[in-house]
Amino acid sequence: MIKTSNDTASTGTGGAAAGTRLGYSAWPGWFPWKVAEEQNIFSANNVPVDLKWFDGYLESINTLTAQQIEANSQTLNDTVSAIAGGADQVVVLVNDNSTGNDQVIVREGINTIADLKGKKIAAEEGAVDHFMLLLGLEREGLSPSDIQFVPLETGKAAAAFVGGQVDAVAVFAPFTTQALKRPGSKELFSSKEFPGAIPDHLVVSRKFLNEHPDRVQAMVDSWFATLDYIQKNAEQASEIMAKRAGVSVEEYKGYAQGTKIFTLEENLQAFQPGNTMSSLSYAATEMANFLQEVGLVKQKPDLTKLFDDRFVKAYAAKAKKA
Fold first, then answer.
1. What is the three-class DSSP state of 52?
2. Which of 68, 38, 87, 33 minimizes the C-alpha distance to 202?
3. Residue 253 contacts by C-beta under 8 Å, 6 or more apart in sequence?
4. What DSSP character marks residue 140?
5. In sequence order, what are the residues at sequence separation of 6 or more whose Cβ sits closer than 8 angstroms to the Cβ of residue 132?
6. Number of neighbouring beta carbons within 10 Å of residue 4
7. Angle of helix 128-139 versus helix 280-293 axis, rounded to 10
8. Model-level pTM?
């Protein structure tokens, strides 16, 4: 289970002036933000950040959409959904790709995706693992109406599965650890089978980007500085991130293979046009089409201004000179 947060955040209307409110939630690719805070990496990059923890991932998305925070850690498909709903947000950094830490976990007796037909399956409606669940169903020729979908916040979905209230659950780490405590349970499929389908990002409101591009740059710089710190201080960083996740260090290390943290070079490449899911612009278009097909968005959003790679490029230019 996720522990109660000790993180604090400014909640006044002057948040951008007092400190950039950066939201994050329970995902291995976002726990490095906690390292940045504890090791004063934000301060070293001259950016005042109020790191705000959200027990519910969807709440963090809604809070950014409401402009009650300036920046958030969220997936590409959830950002596409927010934009389809009228939000004006910009992806400025790739944190990672999910490569197995998003999972559909099933009870004993369910062995194939076809076995999910008619079963009760819990997930956070409209969020990342609901998206992955629908991808899996589609691959096997099943539609959303072929299952009994139970919409629950991710932590509650895992608890409902462990309690035997549903037959399967779609959750992300560290909630996967909780769900697999149900006797006889197992992973049916994961994000490993859908490369590039779940990229995770630093997303900011366009208003904040326009008013404080220097702070956006400093957050991007802080991210890469944090990755350098983690590489050089692996044990200490793992302890910080495991504590935030509410799991043991050994359990946390088990998540390593399921999350691919993007390097600077991989960031630069992801922002380039392409015709595979490794290109963010291509992936966003495919996601928008899929989300509309399954009814999660009513109309395709305008994606032409979704990505802004100038901050990653600026960091790369500085790194090259160093």
1. strand
2. 33
3. 238
4. T
5. 102, 104, 170, 191, 194, 197, 198
6. 8
7. 80
8. 0.88
Phi, psi (deg, nearest 5) at residue 113: -60, -35
In this predicted model, what pLDDT tens digit does every residue of 31-53 receive, in sequence order? 999 999 999 999 999 999 999 99
Q: How far apart are CA 35 and CA 321, in angstroms?
A: 26
User: Residue 274 has which token pair?
Assistant: 């392409």
Q: What is the pLDDT of residue 201?
A: 98
E strand residue ranges, 125-274: 148-151, 168-172, 186-190, 199-205, 259-261
Q: Are 121 and 150 in contact (CB under 8 A)?
A: yes
* The amino acid at 210: N
Q: How is 113-126 classified by DSSP, letter by letter?
A: GGGGTT-EEEE-TT
pLDDT tens column, 105-153: 999 999 999 999 999 999 999 889 999 999 999 999 999 999 999 999 9
Note the pLDDT of residue 126. Answer: 85
Residue entry with tokens 């998003």: 102
Residue with tokens 């020729």: 141
Where do we find the tokens 């079963």? 119
